[in-house]
Each structure stands twice: as C-alpha cells, then as structure tokens.
Amino acid sequence: MKQYVIVGHENPDVDSIISGYLLEQLLKRKGYVVEFIIPDKEIDRDTKLFCQKYGIDVTRYQKDWVQNADYILVDHHERQVPGNVIAIFDHHPTSKKIDCPNFLNKRICSTAMLIYELSPDSFLDEEKKLVVLANFVDTVSFHLPDKYRTEDIELTKELCSSLHLDYGELEKEGMMLTSLNDLSKSYCNGLKRYQFGPYFVMSSYIQVLEITEEERDTMVQFCQKRLREEKADLYVFLIVTFFKHTTTVYYIKENTMKAESYSYFVSRGSVIMPKVESYFLQQK
After folding, report:
1. Which of 77, 85, 237, 274 lies most in the core, judged by the most C-beta atoms within 10 Å?
2. Class of domain 183-281
3. Cα(234)–Cα(194) distance, rounded to whole angstroms?
4. How confident is the model at residue 97 (pLDDT cuts 50, 70, 90)?
C-alpha cells in the first residue's frame, strides 16, 4: 500500500502539531499507511512543553524528510516538501491559486477542529480534548474574532461538557503567554516564512500581559538583524498585550519600520498576513 506523510508548517505551533497527530490517527483507523513527521530541528520551547503536558511527545515525531513521498499538509498550504503534495487541510485564508487535488480550506477556529469535523465519531476522548486545546490556543482563548465562527465557541463548550472538562481552566491555558526571560529567543516565537511571488517575508509574534519599551525595542532590533541575515524583504512582528487589550504590528525592512496599533486582538494568519500577501502579489 502507498505510504503518506503528514507535515505541519515550519516551526509548528500547537494547532499544527495537534492537527497532524489527529489526522494521522484518523487515517490509520481508515486503513491508510500514514506517518506524521516534524522535520524541524528546533521547536518553540513553550509549544513543546504544552504538547508534552497533554500527552504528545513532540520529539517522537521529529524525523527526517521522506524523499519522493506523497505529502499531506496541515495548518498551512505552501511548504516545500521532497515529494508530491496530494492533500491540504488548512484554516488560513489565501488569495493564491492552490494547485492541489485535495484542498480543504474554511474559516474555523483551528485546523484540529477542521479535521475533527470530518469524522467526529472516529476520535477517542483524549483526542477530542486535544481538539479543545487547539481551539483555545489558536484563537488565544477566543480573543481573536477573525479566527473563529460564532458556532465554534458553542461547539467547544459542548465538547467540554461531554468530556467533563473545565472550560474556564482550559481558557486560561489557551492564552499561551510568551516568556520574556531571554529576548533573543522570545522575539522569534511562532516564526514563519512566506514566499509571495519573488518576495520573501518572515513573521513572528509574542503574547504577553505587558511589556516595557526597552523590551519591545530590543526585540524589534533582533527582528531587523534576522531580516538582514536571511535577506528577507519584510519582517512582520506582532505584540499582543493582554492587559491593554491591544495588538501592535511592526512592518520591518532593512532601513525602515512602520507600526500599526489595534485596540483589540488581531490574528496574524487571518488578518495581517493575507493583507501582506495581497500587497506583494500586486507588485510588478
């Protein structure tokens, strides 16, 4: 039988890891020969600890690429793989034309929820709990209205009720605050790379209760240094501040920087990066 390989986006976050794991379990139960891998050597420490806390040993899936395999992408739609992409499961909007025979994309709170809705009765209770966790983490506990449907909150509450989970406790877990103990590592939390035509864009974000101007300026400088090292055209850095209920987005180039402030929480994947993508794809 043909073997399939599931892979999330670069530097996978909680939803990417959980959705890859869930899809592997689902397809195995359907009789497919499939393997979920994480080819990344480095994963954000907080992401790794969170997954381990809830039963997923990330290191178990850190494996080398499988050459010339048929790949299934989860929680993204554009990673370069050493084989054919035959299916994509993603919840991030895009204006790109996706050349893939099986492309499932919809506005929903997490890719894990997208996969769960394919066959709810096929998952074990502990796997359904992972869906709930992914829903909270990827929407910052439903503080990002652009990342979920109204019904996603009710569906999450129903799952919590049926599984006898404490909704309030998991809601706190979902905030996933970024540690500022080492700013040289904090700034690249959730680092992603994007290719929009000939333009190379990098992006990362932090989620904090509050932040000083000195801490902010230091991390912006780290972003600019990373942009030069990797010769990117743009670095998009987001700071989500819970106490002030704000999001500040820094658009960093080699010699210039522009900041946009929002008096609410803004989603990188659903709002900011689609705007950046649209801008670059319009450039001649």
Report:
1. 237
2. alpha beta
3. 10
4. confident
User: What confidence tier does 44 reach under pLDDT thresholds 50, 70, 90?
Assistant: confident
Say if residue 272's pLDDT is above 80: yes
Which tokens is 247 given?
Answer: 């999001």
Break the chain into its structural domains and give their ranges.
3-124, 183-281
Distance CA 68, CA 174 (A): 37
Provide the residue type at 116 as one letter: Y
Band (243; pLDDT cuts 50, 70, 90): confident
* Region label for 197, one of left (φ > 0), alpha (ψ between -120 and 50) or beta (otherwise): left
pLDDT band at 95 (very low <50, low <70, confident <90, very high): confident
- The whole-angstrom separation of Cα 216 and Cα 121 is 46
Pick the CATH number of 3-124 from 3.40.1390.10, 3.90.1640.10, 3.50.50.60, 3.90.550.10: 3.90.1640.10
Q: pTM of whole model > 0.85?
A: no
Count CB neighbours of 38 within 10 A: 21
Residue 96 has pLDDT above 90, yes or no: no
